[in-house]
Amino acid sequence: MSETNRLFSIAGSPRFEVYSFDFGWGKPKKVDVTSIDKTGAFSLSESRNNDGGVEIGLALNKQQMEEFAQVFVQGLESLE
Fold first, then answer.
1. Is the predicted pLDDT of residue 72 greater than 50, yes or no?
2. pLDDT tens digits, one per residue of 49-69
3. Domain span at residue 15?
4. Which of 3, 53, 60, 64 is the most exposed place for a label (fewest CB within 10 A)?
5. How many domains does the chain have?
């Protein structure tokens, strides 16, 4: 598949409230969504601090992660 036709998978939602689940041994300290897809996966959940934030998980190879980090930082800087 070419880069212009690349597929990504996204799992989760901040509305699932995954940090509020308690199966009898207490609420989770950390939640991760796993995937058999080695790269190109994204997961979303509410912040574990319950402060209205969002946790985003990414599964990218090293080069893609470095490129993503640069674009992400530029996006944050543009908000200032």
1. yes
2. 777 788 888 878 888 889 989
3. 3-78
4. 3
5. 1
Spatial CA neighbour of 19 closest among 54, 58, 52, 45: 45
Total-model pTM: 0.51
- Distance in angstroms (rounded) separating the CA atoms of residues 2 and 27: 42
DSSP 18-58: GGG--SSS---S------S-SSSEEEEEE-TT-SS-EEEEE
Closest CA to 34 of 49, 20, 18, 50: 18
Quickly state the pLDDT bin for 33 (edges 50, 70, 90). low
CATH code for position 71: 3.30.559.10
